[in-house]
Amino acid sequence: MIWGKKLGSLATAFFGAGVFFCAQMHGISTTSAAELPSQNIPAEISADTLTYDQERGIVTARGAVEIKQGERTLSADEVRYHVVEGRVFASGDVILIEPNGQVFFAEKVEFDDQLRDGFIDQVKVLFTDQSRLSADSAERSENRYVVLRNGTFSPCRLCRDDPEKAPLWQIRAKEVTHDQEEKTVEYENAWLEIFGVPVLYTPYFKHPDPTVERQSGLLAPSIGGGDNLGFTFELPYFWAIDDTKDFTFTPLVTTKQSVVLGGEYRQLFQNGALSIAGSGTVADRETESGETKNDQFRGHIDATGRFDLDATWRTGFDIRATTDDTYLRLYDFSADRTLTNRLFLEGFHGRSYSSANAFAYQGLRDTDENKEFPIVVPSLNYNFVGQPDAWSGRFDFDVGTRTITRIQGRDNTRLSFDGGYDLPLTGLFGDIYTLKANVQAQAYWTDGVDPGNPDVNPSDDQGSDVTGRFLPQFGFDWRLPFIQENEGWQQLLEPRFQVVAAPSFGNPDEIPNEDSVGFELDDANLFELNRFPGLDVADAGSRIDYGLSWHGSWDGGTAAEAFFGQSYQFIEADDDIFPDGSGVGDAFSDFVGRVQFSPLEAFNLQYRFRLDEDSLDPQRSEIEAQFSVPAFTFDVEYLFANNQATSTEFEDREELNFSLSSQLTENWSAFGSHRRDLEQGRALSWSLGMGYEDECITIDGVFRRRFFDDREIEPENTFFLQINFKHLGGLQSS
Prior knowledge:
Helix content: under 10%
Low-confidence stretches: 1-39, 645-649, 730-734
Number of strands: 44
């Protein structure tokens, strides 16, 4: 039947396939089929009228013509297929919807029956992200290239009140080539227009089309300047090696120093990921003594890997190193003061956990002696958490070994066991008891330790030694919750006390303290059997811990809670065990507690404190407050620490840090921050910034003042401006 053959060819011409169709003529449905040589995709055609001129070999569909095949749809006022010439013509509000979501609009189109060559008049392309590409005319060739004459591209939305008004920015070019296979858009003789005003000309320009998420090419350049580096220019290049690998090459040109070559390689595997970043340059460097050394190699490496071996085990590494203390901060790679290198293997077995680790560190403070930093190889640990038994009790234990060596200073190997049993019980009055039993047992092989001397590199060490400890602990923890239900609110009041029985010995002077140096009593560790963070110091001696907690909640969402507690040591603790300023030392410890208040879902206030047991003077205070609504977010952090412990880096500290960010309008935002040392009465840093963001452009401007001074890094003002054009990249200055 000739109708089926001709209409099937019409569908083939537009969509490259078609064997079935349905034609609606004046509201009457007619169905026919044709067997085409190489296609087997159903096509459906509908139109008000459908005619075939056998003498001229022309099939014509008129009036609300719509052709559907698969996920592709063509609509027009009229479609004509010239069978002999093998040409297809469509006119009148032509709309072609591609399977990838792109939409083509045109006044008229002309294609061959293979859709490889053709002409489009007054074409407009709407991409899936609402970006638009338009031109006076376009030619399509090889089913790949679309060459547009007098073309314009923009991802910016048009003004609703005046669609003819120029968008925020657009690119206008004499010729635009869209490579649909490579997914790139190329421009010749192009102008970047801002609100319709030409501001930047380029004879040639190329960028990925809006369907591309990842493609090789230049990234946004950055322009900056400073006292140390002078004028700087950075132009990164991104190389998408394949679907799983990429490399970003980032050269940094400075006027006062040499070029810095930086880069980052990333790769995804089926079972993990790898990232290797680094940089290097030959530049001047200021030493700790203030001497300037010329033409020194300076650089860094930062590599991370994570790999799943199976459902239980995974391995990985972190490698971080730099040639000198100030390089990372000077070139703005990182503000870290200690670099941690780690190689690990870990396994998760239900509730239990196994790990093997190796650690090495690099300190970047001017007081750090890296030859005295520990090298931990190996650190092996197995943590077992048992299932509840018939009485709801549970066993758990940690067993492990750790070896620490130093280039200069003491070395030691520890073999440890720390395990116990907890049995919870409920009394007749709803009170909750927990019986606890725990044992610590450690054996140490040491070299270069001066007993009782915390110095890691003592001048009078005692050579090699073998020592250890065995410390049993028994605890009785009691709580009695009082719950009150009221109309609209409820509260919980819970007194708690704990008795811990243990011998007062267990900390030989020959045991070096490596993992429990920074101890401080607080509300989180008050009721722990061993309040120290590690195992090198045991919390020996008998004591009573007691406290009172309260929690209230209201139907409107308001919530509040408070805790206040203290510890009493039956035998006053040895000063060598608890450092000065830790809150433990006399028979009565300092008071510790916290208060948290949330009157609204958007507001939260928390206060944690430690008060002197005699004078109630604050020894440590931490206040955090946050208020967040859609219009703005306000954060305040206050810290006061009366630190007198010789193991801590700082003495008295009192700092205030606050930040404010606000969404001024749908597109405009602003923020500011300030950090101040109240103890010394000086600012540490402050910043102000504003930003604009819409669907096609992002603008951020920040001004910072930093008062930090460390050798060649001096206090400075910095200004950062970043402008990113969607799909094009951008320009940033600092």
